[in-house]
Major facilitator superfamily (MFS) profile domain-containing protein
Amino acid sequence: MANDNDIRTFDDAAVEKQDIDHAEIASVFEEDAFEARRVLRKIDFRLIPLLLLLYTLTFLDRVNIGNAAVWNLDQDLHLKGYDYNIVVLVFYIPYILLEIPSNMVINRVQPRYWIGFLALGWGMSVTFAGFAKNMGGLLTARVFIGIFEAGMFPGCLFLIGSWYRREELISRMAWFMVSNDVAGVLSGLLGAGLGSLNGKDGYSGWSWIFFVEGGMTCCAAVLALLFLPSFPEESTFLTPEEKAWYLRRLKCDDNNRESEQKKMDFRGVLLSLRDWKVLTSGVLYLSVCVTAYSLSVFQPVVLTSFGWSSLKSNLLTAPVRAVSGIISVLVALWSDKVKKRAVFCLTGYLISIMGLLFVMLFHKGNLRYMGFYFASFGIYICQPLVIGWCVNQVLGYTKRGTVTAFAVSCGQIGGIISAVVFPSNNSPQYVPGISTCIGFQGLGILAVINMWYWCRWENKQREAGKRDHLRTLSAEEQEKLGELHPDFRYML
């Protein structure tokens, strides 16, 4: 339902007539609410499914190394000791370094051209990885996958954050991030199916995984080039009337909307990085990603340590991700409905910690497998919430672009950590790796409490009128205040 601000901006003239009676006003409001839902659906269908597809393939191509590992990868490329861990780790180095620069590019180039180019680049890199003859060849392919994938996730988050009001954002983020779970399901199924082609035409199962999944991404890149929309101010798929109304609607939620059209630059990024909320976003997403990447990349390997076959281990990763995807979307819808974030984040962390303790402390395969369910849906509840919550707390293209890119960059450090704390000699309990995941989730809990406490305190200051002196500034200066404006309220 559109709120009163939505309705007032949609047809100001009708509401402002003094001779209109209450029944007529109610009729106008009802029609406007229907129109708001219609335009939102139009935006949702144009934006979210395509981004969901692209990020599904992004995540699939990133973690398929875990499925490949159980189909003769080590033997064919003569990987020993930490070689596999290094192959997993090297992806994250260019990924971390290039995320903020990539968001500066997407702010200047049509998103469809930039994201389409990135998708084509990493799709080809994955495909060529299937031809690797030694560790050096696979390392090179993984570096290029990291270079091209670096801009995809923060760019998509940046685009989504620009299209929706704050109370509509988390559910859209969850639908987008359910890509992780879709990819997790597909990864297990495709890993089992494509890996079973082992030996066909002289290629091992791991090569077929890379060939087919990389080719799928190249095809999706064409869809991005053709259909991905731009930012709201530059969109063409809405009618002029719909576009004008929608920009007014966003303006009601974001007093800084006009200055948002300024392009990101290094000075703006550096100023944004001084904001404690931006820095907290990095801590929160890092705390999520250590566990998320550990589960995605090493779950098939851990399952084989139960004595299960490669085929069974790949297949049994699928239902875990399916359940976590469904739960994460339902919780996100609930969070948007009640406009609360912190309590859901804390619940997700605690559930995930409980699941990890099951995996680490129990010895029976069935109980440990049950632990993977709790660990997965707990952490995937948190993933869209923490990134969306941090976007909720800032205004302006520059700061939003910095938040998404910085948070995701920090998250990839979690990928590096996960790559080195699960060596094969820790099998079957993997105590150091799982303990590391639990420790970082504890850090995430502290960051959630910190964000909730200080934002709640600041909201109370504004409600008490202690920031009203900022209203004496000129209109231009007030517009530059962003989330410091006394009318702005932080999400809790």
